[in-house]
């Protein structure tokens, strides 16, 4: 079978012929070599680079190129910059004084004028960085959006592609074997994506770059699909124009894998077997699916979801609770840079409760804590850690309510529907990076699943829900289960 045929089968994921590209993407100008918009984030990245360096040894900014992706109030800048490092202070310089040029990739998130450096990768220019393509990156490319040759040159100069999937598929993008039809079809699915998810790209160059990321992602999705042992379908999602790195830095939660959870008392286990299936959504214990936006605050959503359920079961009142309060006021955690449910429970106790979503609404970025104890509608008395045995977890859930868990989010960038069951080595239980909420379980055609409430909006997954294989410790679903206790 020709190597692109399996990929073509993915095209079925989006029906219909695509209308023309939105004007903005097609008609806009390419970035200037130094667009003024890139300077602020580039200077911020430089400042972070120079932080802690002695005067006289600080680097200066050379050329800057980059892309910007906007969503809501945030802009994510992916920059490539040259830094000139020259030592001007003879008391600290090594002799002979040398000048060094570095090529750096930065990712800078800007929200409301505030910058955060998400990633930095600098190497001396004289070592080979990305192979033959790299020098082209610093030149302007004004190639035509849909033309096959433009697409090929994009792939040849793909700047920070390190993924092995890409390498293993790269023969596909050999100029001699890439069929014209294929390029046209991929371009049309990309257009469909742009329309479905209301994407706007500022420039033609940005649109080209996003299309190359999109195509690469379709191949990643296809590979994940081929290796899935469940019924899940992977393909185009609203995250299909983000690189893996961008997706991780924005939506996932590195703290979860770095920190050990603070020990909490073990919950009393429930006697007797779990009912064959259970779903708290049809029992009124679960609020609607929320959206964390461009902020790694999944831990806050996981915890409010659990407390919402606990409060409902103890007090009979389903209140949508404030994640923003946790983002702003829980100083044990790191707001949009990640956190742990165990810390969040402590913070809720210390603060004196949670306000409602209505009283303390979600902004998706860190702001000054504005919690007021008089407005807290809900309190918790304690928190507990749950068993790692999935049958016991099911029994506890059916009796006591939705459970805060954390999982390895492997494949979720491209998850569309069905029961996900990745191979264990691909979805290690030890690389947990996303907190979510277990709300139910059951079987679909004899495949046991957990129903998981996510916080990426209803336009992801099955109306915002994720289904994961149950009974095999899939993706670490059982290893960080916890709950608040309301007396
Ligand atoms: C699409 O995005 C634009 C600008 O970001 C916004 O004004 C518009 O309301 C969005 N439309 C939909 C249907 O989401
Ligand atoms: C803080 O909350 C009070 C109401 O509790 C509100 O009036 C005030 O505007 C809020 N302050 C900020 C900075 O959001
Ligand atoms: C639970 O916490 C609330 C609020 O802090 C407190 O008023 C209540 O007495 C506590 N209940 C128990 C049984 O400790
Ligand atoms: C669910 O599927 C599993 C595996 O096929 C099977 O062992 C179990 O009995 C099923 N449970 C129900 C309630 O059908």
TrEMBL record:
Transmembrane segments: none annotated. Residues 190-247 form the Cathepsin propeptide inhibitor domain. Its EC number is 3.4.22.41. The keyword Signal applies. Keywords: Disulfide bond, Glycoprotein, Hydrolase, Lysosome, Protease, Signal, Thiol protease, Zymogen. It comes from the Eukaryota. PROSITE patterns: THIOL_PROTEASE_CYS (PS00139), THIOL_PROTEASE_HIS (PS00639). Residues 1-19 form the signal peptide. It holds the Pfam family Inhibitor_I29. GO terms for cellular component: endomembrane system; intracellular organelle lumen; lysosome. It catalyses: The recombinant enzyme cleaves synthetic substrates with Phe and Leu (better than Val) in P2, with high specificity constant (kcat/Km) comparable to that of cathepsin L. Gene3D superfamilies: 1.10.287.2250, Cysteine proteinases (3.90.70.10). It is found in: Lysosome. GO terms for biological process: immune system process; proteolysis. GO terms for molecular function: cysteine-type endopeptidase activity. Residues 274-485 form the Peptidase C1A papain C-terminal domain. Belongs to the peptidase C1 family. This is Cathepsin F. The lineage of its organism: Eukaryota, Metazoa, Chordata, Craniata, Vertebrata.
């Amino acid at each position: 079978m020709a190597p692109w045929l399996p990929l073509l089968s993915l095209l079925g994921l989006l029906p219909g012929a695509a209308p023309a590209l939105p004007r903005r993407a097609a008609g806009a100008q390419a970035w200037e070599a130094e667009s003024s918009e890139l300077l602020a984030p580039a200077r911020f990245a430089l400042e972070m680079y120079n932080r802690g360096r002695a005067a006289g040894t600080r680097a200066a900014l050379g050329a800057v190129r980059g892309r910007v992706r906007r969503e809501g109030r945030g802009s994510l800048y992916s920059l490539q910059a040259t830094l000139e490092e020259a030592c001007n202070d003879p008391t600290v310089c090594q002799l002979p004084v040398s000048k060094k040029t570095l090529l750096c990739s930065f990712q800078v998130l800007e929200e409301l004028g505030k910058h955060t450096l998400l990633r930095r990768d600098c190497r001396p220019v004289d070592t080979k960085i990305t192979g033959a393509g790299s020098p082209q990156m610093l030149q302007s490319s004004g190639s035509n959006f849909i033309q096959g040759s433009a697409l090929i040159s994009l792939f040849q100069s793909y700047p920070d592609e390190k993924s092995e999937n890409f390498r293993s598929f790269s023969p596909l993008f050999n100029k001699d074997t890439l069929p014209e039809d294929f390029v046209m079809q991929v371009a049309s699915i990309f257009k469909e994506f742009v329309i479905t998810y209301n994407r706007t790209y500022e420039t033609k160059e940005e649109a080209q770059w996003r299309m190359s990321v999109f195509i690469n992602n379709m191949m990643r999705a296809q590979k994940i699909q081929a290796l899935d042992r469940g019924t899940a379908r992977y393909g185009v999602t609203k995250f299909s124009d983000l690189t893996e790195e961008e997706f991780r830095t924005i939506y996932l939660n590195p703290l979860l894998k770095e920190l050990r959870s603070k020990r909490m008392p073990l919950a009393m286990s429930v006697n007797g077997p779990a009912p064959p299936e259970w779903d708290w959504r049809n029992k009124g214990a679960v609020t609607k699916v929320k959206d964390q936006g461009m902020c790694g605050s999944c831990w806050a959503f996981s915890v409010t979801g659990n407390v919402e359920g606990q409060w409902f079961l103890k007090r009979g009142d389903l209140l949508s609770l404030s994640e923003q309060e946790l983002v702003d006021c829980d100083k044990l955690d790191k707001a949009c840079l990640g956190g742990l449910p165990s810390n969040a429970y402590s913070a809720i106790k210390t603060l004196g409760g949670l306000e409602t979503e209505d009283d303390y609404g979600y902004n998706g970025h860190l702001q000054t804590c504005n919690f007021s104890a008089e407005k807290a509608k809900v309190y918790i008395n304690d928190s507990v850690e749950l068993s790692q045995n999935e049958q016991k977890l099911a029994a506890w859930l059916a009796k006591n309510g939705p459970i805060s868990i954390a999982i390895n989010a492997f494949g979720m960038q491209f998850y569309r529907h069905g029961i996900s069951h990745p191979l264990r080595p691909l979805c290690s239980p030890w690389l947990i990076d996303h907190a979510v909420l277990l709300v139910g379980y059951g079987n679909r055609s004899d495949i046991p699943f957990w129903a998981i409430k996510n916080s990426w909006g209803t336009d992801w997954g099955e109306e915002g829900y994720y289904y994961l294989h149950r009974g095999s410790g899939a993706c670490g679903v059982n290893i960080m289960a916890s709950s608040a206790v309301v007396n």
